[in-house]
Specification:
Elements lengths: L1 H14 L6 H28 L5 H24 L9 H25 L5 H8 L1 H14 L5 H25 L1
């Protein structure tokens, strides 16, 4: 029942977005769902290999595979004549992404996953969309409607129940 609450909470927030309508929203939700499935597989496989490969090697390999897989698309984009290379904000975002999102985040994730169960790791992974919603509210002033607030409440409730059930099983 906990994952149903989480699913309902995320969908309430997703479906109440006012940025897109109709087919565009459905397509966007499908892409996000595929990303979530990929991220879920990442959590499972990370837990499985965590004791065998060091944190720094796993983080390094993710960076290498990312470069190799995105390089053809990046080269294509560079030849289209975009002037983003001269944009200071682009380089600040790239530096932030490279250090915080890649090196620091993956390092912390791979180091921490050794010490928690796969369920707990998955639960904390669900905080990514929730924290994104809250940060958009804080930094960009986007207003949350009552349905989105209800969705967040359901998500937090399901996370709490899952973590509480994990704690009570150990005692």
């Amino acid at each position: 029942p906990y994952n149903i609450w989480f699913f309902v909470g995320i969908n309430i927030n997703s479906l109440n977005s006012e940025s897109e309508t109709g087919t565009a929203r459905l397509f966007g939700n499908l892409l996000v769902l595929l990303a979530v499935i990929g991220e879920s597989l990442f959590v499972v496989f990370s837990k499985r290999i965590s004791p065998r490969i060091s944190t720094s090697i796993r983080s390094f390999l993710i960076c290498i595979f990312s470069v190799v897989l995105f390089l053809p698309f990046a080269i294509y984009e560079l030849f289209k004549g975009y002037d983003f290379l001269w944009n200071r904000d682009f380089w600040l975002l790239a530096a932030y992404s490279g250090t915080v999102l890649t090196v620091l985040t993956y390092g912390l994730w791979f180091y921490g996953i050794v010490y928690v169960s796969g369920t707990v790791a998955a639960v904390f992974n669900t905080l990514i969309p929730v924290s994104s919603i809250l940060l958009v509210f804080l930094f960009f002033g986007e207003q949350l409607n009552s349905a989105q607030m209800a969705g967040l409440l359901l998500v937090f409730s399901s996370i709490g129940m899952i973590l509480f059930s994990q704690t009570s099983k150990r005692t």
